[in-house]
Amino acid sequence: MNFVKRTKRAGDGAATLLMVVPATVVFVVMLVVPVGLAFYLSLTDWDGYSAQPKIIGGSNYTHLFSDPVMRHAAFVTLLVAVAGTAGMNLLGLGFALLVNGTSRINRFLRVVLFYPHVLSALVVGFLWSAILGTTGAVNSLLTAHGGSVLPFLSDPTWALITMIAVLVWAGFGVNVVLYLAGLQAVPRSLVEAARIDGATRWQVFRHVTLPALGPVVTVNIVLSLVTLLKTYDLVVSLTAGGPAGQTQTVAYLILWNSFHDNRLGFGSAQSVVLMIVTGILALVVTRMRRRGEMAVYS
Amino acid sequence: MRAQHLSRAAVGTVLALALAACGGGGGFSGKSSSDGGDKGTVRMLVNITPNLTQSYWEGLVKPFEQANPGVDVKIEAPTGKTVADTLPQQLAAGNAPDVVETLMADRTLAPQMLDLTDQSWTKGTPLVQEAALGGRIYTVGVGEQAQSLIFYNKTAFTKAGIAQPPTTLDELTQDMGKLKSAGYLPLQTAGDFVTGLQMLQLADPSLAQSHPQWYQDIRAKRLKVGDSMLPYLKLYKSWLDKGYLDKNAMGLKYPDSQTRFFSGKSAMYVMGSWFTASEATAKKDFEVGVFPAPVQAGQKSPGPQGATMAAPYMVLKSTKHRALALKLVQWLVTDKAAVTSQLQQDGNFRKGYDRKFTPLEQQVQQILDAAPSGVPQGEGYGDYTLPSGFNDAWNTQVQGLYVGRSPEKVASAVDEWVSAHS
Amino acid sequence: MSELTVTESRAEEGTAVSEAAAPERRSVRRRSGLPRAVFLGLVAIFMLTPLYVLVVNAFKPQEEILANPFGLPVGALTTRYLSHALHNPQFNIVRGYAVTILFVVAVNVLSVALAGPVAYVIARSSRRRYRLLLLTFLAGTFIPGQVLVIPVVYVLKTLGLMGTIRGFVLFETALTLPFSVFLYAGYIGTIPPTLDQAAAVDGAGRLRTFWKIIFPLMRPVVATMVILNTFSVWNDFVNPQIILGPGSGLYTVTTGVYAAVSQYSTDYSVVFPTLLLAIAPLLVFFVVMQRHIISGLTAGATKG
A143 to each of A134, A239, B255, C116, how far by Cα in Å? Predict the structure, then answer.
């Protein structure tokens, strides 16, 4: 009520209220309340349909940190996020430099690099599992020519590498596009001045282009990181968490625990931890990058 | 202009929503069921497999719909991986189906299910008493599945010089050696759910003899799952080390393993009786035989057969069409044509419901008749149950043998899971 | 993110410059021409191979796929399996498309209708409470929507919206709000307030001013958000899978593909045709519109 009165007094009128309230209500009801609820549910033993979730304190959390399955999933998730972010950004920046410009070929290449992003991760996973699976296209070709099967998806180490590679394949096109946009902002005069001063291509890149790209790099890294930390669809369709549960990510386990084992309270605890870790990592990267940029500029 | 309209409409929607939110209502206790009469739509969540396709199910219930004008049976396929994780989603969402196929009542599910104890037609349906929970009947089934069967390639056995199928696990191991020398992959397996299932199927007959009170002992903590399974895990690991199993099998899916077996590359395949339905239609250039899973030396052979309920049905308490749902389930498990069709489609058995048997099915029937008793398996059913989700956890752990984990480690990981979930 | 300062116009200038390609740049390109061309050619082949495998195998029977997965037996191609996939009783692909398009449109319309006005108020006010509101929305961009589904189920159930189109659209819209508000507010900040004042003098209310004067100027940034939202709604899997569930009978393209493929993932004469049908229209749309989509993706995002 107070809010309403003050707004009125300010002369913004009911119109302002009408502009602010709907979005805020939807945002609060659908995102803020669920985040709060996740905290609450994580302290309960909710099974998804019992009338009243029982509060059991922090035991979901103690269980979570002692559970070897969970710990392995945390390792897999971090590995996927870090290796995937590195891969996406190195390739993203590299190819942005290679396909910069608007020649026909460059435009074609941009489409080719970007198109996997149009496909859903689920489709990408099914497609690659049909290509790399034990009976898939590549192994069929190998065995037809007397070779032996390569365990792309049946050996845990291979499967992890395959998963990361597929994630990078499917996602780095977005980074290319974002870096390309960033490259347009690099003052051409600076680059040309450096070239005239006799700087090599690498020196120009290192001392002119890269520093100017600073913020774009940050955005790209944070974006890749946040996306990869919640990897789920691809696990479902590419490996189904296997072999022997070795490619289960945290997001995969959250949904598995919640809806297969009826432990939504435990799943909520995992969600809470994942959200906190995502937030912290995003902040740390932003901070580190900002400091790095300052160092470059000073 | 249009944007303005839209925005107004949107704002309206949102405000209505906010009001609805404040107005309360909802809550989690589902409104107790009322009877929707004998017309309407009955939703049934079913398992979809290569044998039991969506169109099979739709065809199955068609006669029921025709016999009951105004009734529509809506077949729902799982949106999750399986029925086991789709039903909880639906229960959590408050839009559970009226009937669910494939799951059996355990302590978590039973409170959500209709008590069928007073329904007289449940008497005499297969395994109905075994599946009862504290004397109350929640689950009724169509037939019985024999679990502990080993199907084999007769040509391979002949070539390897094996005259008689093995009756003990030691003989089985020896025969595997012969089969390997003859150029066959001795035992076909796969990733998916197959790895863990085959281990359970293999172990049933001997485990039931060495630990007759297995479920009670586990529940009372007199025995650990991992400890009791360790000998089998070790045996399995030794097969793996000797190359009797394909090291890359984890990349295969369930249908792949069947395809491989029928292609004649592998000599044996551990699977339940429903495999006979695939065998009946598969292209192959050898004859398939079957023998019960062997036992340990000194035990009675054949041992108890792993026996599970085929096509178990439950009616949800929350159903708005109680009478209709009950009528449907009664029809599904007692109507001669419906039962026979289901038995035929998924290779299952039931006394008194004769159908045309393939030679292989006749052999399975003989094995069932010769078995001294039937025993539950894995997660089990009725009063004998391990925590729900056990079969999948077990499967994941057994697959660990393929990624270099020791049998001891697998056993202790299984125990850890059981203790964390009970 | 606010540090990104490339404007759309500048991006266009940039392309214009390279289109005219200074002679010096051309010579550079020619010098490194061959190895670069070979390398990029190989990369293009690598990127396109999965698509090739998908397309050719959608027209082949299982035995042919297993025997020769990369081959193109012109004589033996058949549309039988595609037509099977099109008439799959488990997943009506045409209906899946219709449902998904409906969701995409609804979410986009609702998202703009909600986020636009609030972003306008935020951008035009220096009040603390609006700064705070912006920060709250900004924090929302870090919420991983997929793992939030459990409490969202709880909320939707309480509202009686679980398993409904309304509930799903509302949640998907909510997921788009944080980034939209953030982008829109930044963009509106670059539009001179004198425009609003002129409208106010003409007697237009705030709502009117926004929709009539400001909103038309926001086209690039709205296009960016529409593209982003379309991808995220179209490709979402967890949320439709759980919020809609099997009870609603509603399948999006993704959940439908899952239903049609996951049980038959080794029957490649089901997998490839289904996947092809699921992606072909979208892919064609993307190729036709690629210029607008790729540049639109960054046009709005790099301003403000």
Answer: 10, 21, 19, 57
- Name the residue among B84, B108, B252 with its Cβ closest to that of A135: B252
Given an 8 Å threshold on Cβ–Cβ distance, is B21 in contact with C246? no
Determine, for residues A134 and B251 on separate chains, whether the beta-carbon distance falls below 8 Å.
yes
Contacts of B417 in chain A (CB under 8 A): 69
The alpha carbon of residue C181 is apart from the nearest alpha carbon of chain B, in Å, by: 15
Taking residue B300's Cβ as centre, other Cβ atoms within 10 Å add up to 11
Euclidean distance between the first and the last CA atom of chain A, given in angstroms as a whole number: 51
Distance CA C26, CA C47 (A): 27
3-state helix, strand, coil in chain C (%, to 5): 80, 0, 20
Q: CB-CB: which of B21, B108, B399 is closest to A262? A: B108
The tokens for B1 are 């202009």
Neighboring chain C residues of B13 at a CB cutoff of 8 Å: 110, 166
Nearest chain B residue (CA) to A27: B14
Residue C61 to residues A139, A155, B329, C268, C270, Cα–Cα distance (Å): 18, 29, 39, 8, 9
Q: What pLDDT does residue B21 have?
A: 38
- The whole-chain average pLDDT of chain B stands at 87
User: What is the Cα C93 distance to its own chain's centre?
Assistant: 20
How crowded is residue B218: how many other Cβ atoms within 10 Å of its Cβ?
A: 22
The Cα B187–Cα A231 span in angstroms is: 35
- Of chain B, the percentage scoring pLDDT greater than 70 comes to 91
* Alpha-carbon distances of B63 from B38, B58, B234, B323, B336, rounded to whole Å: 16, 10, 51, 18, 12
Q: How far apart are the first and last CA of chain B?
A: 61
Class of domain C93-299: mainly alpha
Report the C-alpha gap between B320 and A209 in whole angstroms.
67
Contact state of B10 with C109 under an 8 Å Cβ cutoff: yes
Question: Of B10, B74, B78, which is closest to C114 when you measure between CB atoms?
Answer: B10
Domain range summary for chain B, segments of one domain joined by +: 40-140+312-347, 146-307+385-421
Q: Which residue has the tokens 């069409």?
A: B321
**Nearest-Cα residue of chain C relative to residue A42:** C151
Q: If you count DSSP H runs as helices and E runs as strands, how many of each does chain C have, helices first? A: 15, 0
Task: Say how far apart CA B399 and CA B391 lie, in whole Å.
Answer: 12
pLDDT at position B37? 59
Residues in chain B: 422
Pairing of strands B99-101, B40-45: parallel
Q: Does B396 touch chain A (CB under 8 A)?
A: yes
Distance, in Å, from the CA atom of A159 to the CA atom of A154, rounded to the nearest integer, reads 6
What CA–CA distance (Å, rounded) separates B169 from C280? 53
CATH number of B40-140+312-347: 3.40.190.10
Q: What is the band of A67 on the pLDDT scale with cuts at 50, 70, 90?
A: confident
Say how far apart CA B226 and CA B416 lie, in whole Å.
Answer: 9
- Treating both helix axes as pointing N-terminal to C-terminal, what angle do A250-259 and A264-297 enclose, rounded to 10 degrees? 160
Residue with tokens 């038995």: B343
Bond before A68 cis per omega within 30 degrees? no
So what's the architecture of B146-307+385-421 in CATH?
3-Layer(aba) Sandwich (3.40)
A34 touches chain B (CB under 8 A): no
Same fold, B40-140+312-347 and B146-307+385-421: yes
Name the phi and psi angles at C12, rounded to 5. Answer: -70, -40
Torsion of CA C118, C124, C126, C131, to 10 degrees: 30
List pLDDT tens digits, range B232-279: 999 999 999 999 999 888 888 888 899 899 999 999 999 999 999 899
Q: Where are the domains of chain C?
A: 8-82, 93-299
**Structural domains in chain A, sorted by start:** 68-297 (1.10.3720.10)
> What secondary structure letter does DSSP report for B357?
P
| pLDDT under 70: residue ranges of chain C | 1-32, 299-304
